[in-house]
């Protein structure tokens, strides 16, 4: 009889100490394993200094948070400055060493925006979006002049280069863009790179045939693709811009305005751009 | 037993971790192991083609040529931009004039050897177009340059404006610009629109040319006489097709040169490849020719000081003297002094005033021009021309075909037919490379004076005229003279704004009659 009591006592004790307590403890402590998140970074403006910094902050956030297991870049942008485009491009390439990055084109992925998508693993696009416009635009500086009152220490101190050099630098940047296309698309690119260099912008369905994108689809499919590439399930989707402390910098107009206050369609600052100008009205000053 | 309980405890402790882990994570992400971004360090700026600036050998016959630059049609360039061409022209004695306002074009073309219009963006009126066509017909050189980067438009519908305006000028010459630009994605000079250009054939304009660079160029449509072509990789923006598109061409006469780019003449691009050699060739094209003069070019008929010779029966009286003074004033305004000579002199162009029927001195000219005064008098050979004309007078050897004019007591004028033997005065022009002679012939000294005054006023439109002969009805001349005398002509001349060439004019007109002594020097 005593033996039976001991067995019962033992079973209860085993149940409590060997099963329930470890299980409950395990359940409680297993929450340290985070639910994976797929982060969304939205780029829906021309790429300038502010946009570039915000996007880089979001990429670094994903880089530094283990629960972010994949990123979807939601693109609807004509591109922007070469500098900001390259900053984002390089940062995304760095991020890809840790997690998959997928592009979802939601309207326009032109020039610098398309450049950015080349640093992602897969490119989705809605069918009517426009994709491409590979190339560079730039405005060469005015003819150098000498002023009586202002001295400089060299002939190119003011302007940096002979004017002709600017043209050649633009060509150099174009070549690096084309190389990024070749590297980014690899064997998926179905047209000669010379055709890409023409700078045409294609409907997504046509761009798909040329191998500039991978699939027509929706944002949900892009998110699922990122999750699949990251080998995660039951994930949470988060908008990274809401998780990043963004400095509120004063937004400045990207495009130059004419005398009527209307956009000329051309950036207000001199420089080089990976930029698609669909409604360029001319009249550069 | 104790170990068994411990094992169970661990198992149940780990189980939630495994369950949660497997709930969320189904595998491990492996990044791509291939190159994901370009090696940016491999890109560098490609250096421009080496300049082949040639040593300039000079132009033999360029001195004194008058080059008219169009600045009146909203032209999108400045002379400073094309200093490479302008400097060459000035250095070789050419005189450069700027056209503005555009209404002066017909008048200024009379005094020009070449007309250059670059990127016009304002229309040419019909009289202007006609004046240009006539100018080229007389051997004047026309250079038309368009440039895809120099078109001004107020709306999208105006985009083709500059090319269309240039093509209006070119319409009679069967050469035109295409409203495109030529580009090459494969073989270019730093940018797809900076194309390599090669000579299309053997022509003075392609002398010493091997490879040039044009910086955004229209292609030109020319049946033949292509001068420069893009290379085999060049395409037209119109259809993204083709190869070796012509970017410079001549018209059939060889007097009209069209070029689809002007940037190649600007700094620093004129120094690239053989571009400067092309500019030299263009300057020679503009300078090394002589265009024929016609009566319509008056008062710019002459290229030297002018000597007036009085024919038999003409005396320097109170009527003739003021008429000559008026003519002297007119010519002096254009840099040509006038003197009354007793005989022909080398280095002068001549105006001969005489009465008809012409004496032997003048008959050589009238016969050479085919004028038949109906007296059946044979023209003397040049060696028979007597006295006052000491220098050999060039005469076309063919004697004109005689007509039935003699029977009708009228004059026969080639191209005009018969005119009455009385009541007409004639202006006859002989344009030889070494001498220009203008003959004023009337039935009396009084009418010759009226004709001279008419000439000085430039009112030849009342006369029946072709390039070298004008027949003027004396009554009309007299009426015109009366009207003109009643309404004094404004003294201000047409605006002929000559650029300073840095050189003094070779001749200084003397303000008083009867004679002037020209400075016997030529332009250096």
Structure description:
The complex is a heterodimer of chains A (285) and B (524). With 285 residues, chain A is α/β, with parallel strands linked by helices. Chain A contains eight helices and 13 strands. Chain A has helices at residues 2-29, 49-64, 82-95, 112-117, 163-185, 193-196, 204-210, 219-230, and strands spanning 37-43, 68-77, 79-81, 101-110, 122-125, 130-132, 137-138, 201-203, 215-216, 236-239, 255-257, 263-267, 272-275. The longest helix of chain A is centred in the first third of the chain and has 28 residues, at 2-29. Chain A is elongated, with a radius of gyration of 26 Å. The relative contact order of chain A is 0.18. By secondary structure, chain B is α/β, with parallel strands linked by helices. In chain B, 24% of the residues lie in helices and 19% in strands. Chain B has eleven helices and 22 strands. Chain B has helices at 2-24, 83-91, 105-109, 126-137, 161-170, 275-287, 320-332, 360-368, 405-408, 445-457, 474-486; strands at 66-70, 95-99, 114-118, 141-145, 175-177, 182-183, 194-199, 212-215, 220-222, 226-230, 235-236, 246-250, 256-259, 306-310, 338-341, 349-355, 410-413, 417-420, 424-432, 435-442, 464-465, 469-473. In chain B, the strands form five sheets. A nine-stranded mixed beta sheet of chain B has the order 2-1-3-4-13-12-10-7-8, with helices on both faces. In chain B, strand 21 (464-465) and strand 22 form a beta hairpin. Chain B is rod-shaped. Residues 378-408 and 488-524 of chain B have low confidence and may be disordered. Classes of the chains: A alpha/beta (285), B alpha/beta (524).
């Amino acid at each position: 009889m005593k033996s039976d009591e001991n067995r019962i006592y033992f079973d209860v004790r085993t149940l409590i100490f060997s099963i329930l307590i470890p299980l409950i403890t395990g359940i409680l402590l297993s929450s340290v394993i985070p639910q994976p998140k797929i982060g969304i970074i939205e780029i829906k403006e021309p790429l300038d200094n502010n946009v570039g910094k915000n996007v880089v902050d979001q990429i670094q956030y994903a880089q530094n948070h283990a629960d972010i297991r994949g990123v979807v870049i939601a693109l609807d942008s004509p591109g922007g400055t070469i500098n900001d485009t390259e900053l984002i491009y390089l940062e995304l390439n760095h991020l890809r060493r840790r997690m998959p990055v997928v592009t979802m084109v939601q309207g326009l992925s032109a020039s610098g925006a398309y450049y950015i998508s080349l640093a992602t693993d897969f490119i989705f696009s809605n069918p009517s979006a426009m994709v491409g416009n590979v190339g560079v635009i730039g405005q060469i500086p005015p003819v150098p002049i000498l002023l009586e009152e202002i001295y400089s220490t060299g002939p190119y101190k003011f302007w940096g280069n002979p004017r002709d050099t600017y043209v050649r630098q633009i060509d150099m940047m174009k070549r690096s863009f084309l190389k990024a296309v070749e590297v980014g698309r690899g064997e998926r690119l179905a047209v000669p790179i010379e055709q890409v260099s023409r700078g045409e912008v294609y409907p997504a369905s046509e761009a798909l045939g040329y191998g500039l994108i991978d699939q027509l689809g929706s944002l949900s499919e892009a998110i699922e693709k990122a999750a699949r590439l990251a080998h995660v399930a039951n994930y949470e989707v988060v908008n990274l811009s809401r998780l990043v402390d963004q400095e509120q910098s004063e937004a400045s107009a990207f495009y130059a305005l004419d005398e009527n206050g209307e956009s000329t369609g051309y950036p207000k600052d001199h420089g080089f751009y990976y930029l698609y100008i669909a409604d360029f009205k001319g009249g550069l000053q | 037993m104790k170990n068994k309980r411990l094992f169970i405890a661990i198992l149940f402790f780990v189980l939630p971790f495994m369950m949660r882990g497997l709930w969320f994570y189904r595998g491990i992400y492996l990044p791509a192991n291939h190159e994901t971004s370009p090696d940016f360090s491999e890109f560098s700026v490609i250096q421009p083609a080496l300049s082949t600036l040639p040593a300039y050998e000079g132009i033999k016959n360029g001195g004194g040529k008058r080059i008219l630059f169009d600045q009146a049609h909203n032209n999108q360039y400045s002379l400073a931009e094309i200093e490479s061409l302008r400097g060459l022209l000035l250095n070789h004695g050419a005189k450069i004039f700027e056209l503005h306002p555009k209404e002066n074009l017909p008048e200024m073309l009379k005094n020009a050897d070449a007309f250059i219009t670059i990127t016009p963006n304002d229309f040419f009126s019909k009289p202007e177009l006609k004046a240009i066509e006539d100018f080229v017909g007389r051997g004047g050189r026309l250079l038309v340059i368009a440039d895809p980067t120099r078109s001004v438009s107020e709306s999208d519908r105006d985009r083709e404006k500059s090319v269309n305006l240039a093509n209006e000028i070119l319409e009679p010459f069967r050469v035109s610009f295409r409203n495109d630009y030529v580009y090459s994605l494969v073989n270019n000079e730093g940018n797809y629109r900076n194309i390599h250009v090669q000579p299309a054939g053997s022509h003075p304009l392609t002398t010493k040319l091997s490879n040039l660079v044009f910086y955004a160029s229209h292609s030109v449509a020319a049946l033949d006489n292509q001068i420069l072509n893009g290379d085999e990789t060049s395409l037209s923006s119109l259809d993204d097709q083709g190869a070796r598109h012509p970017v410079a061409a001549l018209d059939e006469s060889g007097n009209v040169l069209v070029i689809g780019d002007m940037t190649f003449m600007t700094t620093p691009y004129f120094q690239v490849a053989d571009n400067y050699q092309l500019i030299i060739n263009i300057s020679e094209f503009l300078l090394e020719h002589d265009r024929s003069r016609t009566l319509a070019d008056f008062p710019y008929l002459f290229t030297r000081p002018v000597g007036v010779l009085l024919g038999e029966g003409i005396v320097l009286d109170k009527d003739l003297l003021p008429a000559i003074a008026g003519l002297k004033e007119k010519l002096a305004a254009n840099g040509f002094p006038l003197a009354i000579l007793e005989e022909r002199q080398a280095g002068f162009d001549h105006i001969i005033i005489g009465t008809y029927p012409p004496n032997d001195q003048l008959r050589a000219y009238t016969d050479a021009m085919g004028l038949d005064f109906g007296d059946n008098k044979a023209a003397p050979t040049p060696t028979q021309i007597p006295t006052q004309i000491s220098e050999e007078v060039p005469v076309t050897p063919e004697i004109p075909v005689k007509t039935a004019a003699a029977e009708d007591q009228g004059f026969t004028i080639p191209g005009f037919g018969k005119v009455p033997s009385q009541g007409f005065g004639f202006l006859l022009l002989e344009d030889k490379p070494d001498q220009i002679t203008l003959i004023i012939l009337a039935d009396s000294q009084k009418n010759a004076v009226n004709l001279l005054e008419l000439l000085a006023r430039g009112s030849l439109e009342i006369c029946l005229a072709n390039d070298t002969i004008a027949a003027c009805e004396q009554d009309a001349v007299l009426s015109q003279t009366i009207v003109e005398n009643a309404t004094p002509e404004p003294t201000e001349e047409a605006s002929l704004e000559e650029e300073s060439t840095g050189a003094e004019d070779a001749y200084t007109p003397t303000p008083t009659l009867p004679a002037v002594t020209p400075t016997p020097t030529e332009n250096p």
